[in-house]
Design goal:
heterodimer; A: 251 residues; alpha/beta; Rossmann fold; six-stranded mixed sheet; four-stranded antiparallel sheet; 27% strand; B: 272 residues; mainly alpha; 10 helices
């Protein structure tokens, strides 16, 4: 693939006090591509997502290896501060927790849109995140929304930020199937419009028809990369079979 | 209900203080010896005290003893408590530990003892001329003794919020750490807490002035009126006008209960 590499992890190693969380993670996200980073819970996916933004959830910690954004290495906090939001945004795993608890949802989205320099009306972004009647949602506080609604509101805020790459960390967990599909279609559209999407998930059933490439993480290492689930072997195949069994062979 | 009552009381106190500032009052000239301990009448709504001074007017002008000093105390509490809370809750390190330690030292000494100790060094004169500056010293010490509670509350709030998912999301959106700290964490998520402690400091100033006046020698000296010295001055008088001590006592009670109730009702309401 010749498209521009928007985000890249090169031999990423993440250490927390007393243990290594990620040993070696290497992958990239190109313009126009939706890459799925899959793996069991605890395989290091979310912590890798945070490290790609220079945001570790613990202190002290250490990140070795390299993060490249738009072909430029991010080595210092200033480098990460330059690309955060402007080039790479994150939809956190906990949608409700990802919204300011004392701000109405519309206000959080407006702030993201203001930073992006686009129309601050939150309603189109809520619609894009799958709300058919976004008006009432915009005036709610996060605690007034269900888990799935809050998750979509967090997605709307990330969409409003208009970053080149969106890292979606388990953003479809807690959503019903039809809404999952709406959200994935929106992420797919983001990629089709020339952006990059890194979709972190442990639910492989979501991927067919949406992901361009699947990167498998296992015990803190990226161990496989394939264009389709069927092409996975080794740890990826184990993951596929386990998911197939849980789903009762229905996919 | 307590919120409405509190706002009403606070508003009333501020209006009374404004009226007293506009009307002017000479506590020495207000002396009618032939009307000692008179009961309420059309010319003296709450009667007179045992020196023949108008109780209602003194009650009105007694607000000067705590309104501006109370605001100063609240400002000091917010300034000191917020600075120490931010240092220990968000910055950490040596400066954070030093701020927390300093607040701990202040909190470890009983407030009244600290104020009396301070006044014995910097104030403590019952002289009327010195008394005008003494109330500001009391306000200063009041601000200091109320600061540790706010500092501890801000520290706890910041420590709980600083690693919250919405802070990570805000940083991921490219919002600067300074804006996250001062706007999202302090202004949006902590301002109610700060207002609550500021109101408590204001209430504490009323209580402190009353207590010190009652103890004698440390509060607002006679003949300048304060609710505390009005109460202390009249309580021991035999066959006096009961309104001369009942009125300031009720005013103190209503003021403290109202504003303290407001401080309790303030804080965690949604703001966005």
């Amino acid at each position: 693939m010749s498209a521009e590499l928007l985000l890249e992890a090169r031999s990423l190693r993440i250490e927390a006090p007393g243990r290594t969380l990620v040993h070696d993670a290497s992958f990239g996200v190109r313009a126009g591509e939706l890459v799925a980073l899959v793996g069991h819970s605890g395989s290091g996916k979310s912590v890798t997502a945070r490290a790609l933004l220079g945001l570790l959830p613990f202190f002290p910690g250490r990140v070795a290896g390299e993060v490249w954004v738009d072909g430029q290495p991010c080595k210092t906090e200033a480098d990460f501060a330059r690309v955060r939001g402007a080039r790479v945004a994150l939809v956190p795993q906990d949608g409700r927790g990802g919204l300011d608890p004392l701000w109405r949802v519309g206000r959080t989205i407006r702030e993201a849109a203001r930073l992006a320099g686009v129309d601050e009306d939150p309603l189109p972004w809520l619609e894009a995140a799958g709300f058919s009647t976004p008006g009432p949602v915009a005036t709610c506080f996060p605690h007034e929304l269900s888990g799935g609604m809050a998750q979509r509101a967090a997605i709307a805020a990330a969409l409003a930020r208009k970053s080149a790459v969106l890292i979606a960390d388990e953003c479809t967990s807690g959503l019903d199937v039809s809404v999952q599909r709406t959200v994935l279609q929106r992420l797919r559209k983001l990629a089709d419009d020339g952006g990059g999407v890194l979709l972190i998930t442990h639910d492989l059933r979501l991927l067919p028809g949406f992901a361009d490439r699947i990167v498998v993480m296992d015990e803190g290492r990226t161990v496989e990369e394939a264009p389709r689930l069927e092409a996975l072997v080794g740890a990826g195949r184990v993951l596929v079979e386990a998911t197939r069994q849980i789903a009762g062979g229905r996919w | 209900m307590s919120r409405r009552l509190g706002f009403a009381v606070l508003g009333l106190l501020l209006v009374l203080r404004l009226l007293s500032a506009l009307s002017g009052y000479d506590p020495v000239a207000d002396l009618t010896p032939e009307l000692r301990s008179a009961g309420p009448s059309a010319s003296h709504w709450l009667g007179t005290d045992h020196l023949g001074r108008d109780v209602a007017r003194r009650l009105l002008h007694g607000t000067a003893a705590f309104v501006e000093p109370g605001l100063l105390a609240a400002l000091l509490t917010v300034g000191i408590g917020l600075a120490a809370g931010v240092l220990s809750g968000a910055r950490g390190g040596v400066s954070g530990a030093a701020a927390a330690w300093l607040m701990g030292v202040v909190a470890a000494i009983p407030g009244l003892v600290l104020v009396l100790l301070g006044l014995s060094i910097y104030g403590g004169s019952a002289d009327a001329a010195a008394g005008s500056s003494q109330i500001w010293w009391i306000a200063g010490f009041c601000g200091v003794i109320c600061a540790p509670a706010l500092s501890g509350a801000v520290t706890a709030r910041l420590q709980a919020l600083i690693r919250a998912e919405f802070v990570v999301a805000a940083r991921a959106h490219g919002i600067s750490p300074a804006r996250i700290l001062f706007y999202h964490l302090l202004w949006v998520n902590t301002r109610g807490l700060v207002l609550r402690h500021a109101l408590r400091a204001f209430t504490q100033m009323v209580v402190l002035e009353t207590t010190l006046s009652y103890l004698g020698g440390f509060g607002v000296p006679e003949p300048t009126p304060s609710w505390g010295n009005m109460l202390a001055f009249e309580l021991g008088v035999v066959e006096g006008n009961p309104w001369a001590w009942l009125a300031p006592a009720l005013a103190i009670w209503l003021g403290v209960v109202g504003i303290y109730g407001l401080s309790e009702a303030t804080g965690e309401a949604n703001v966005g």
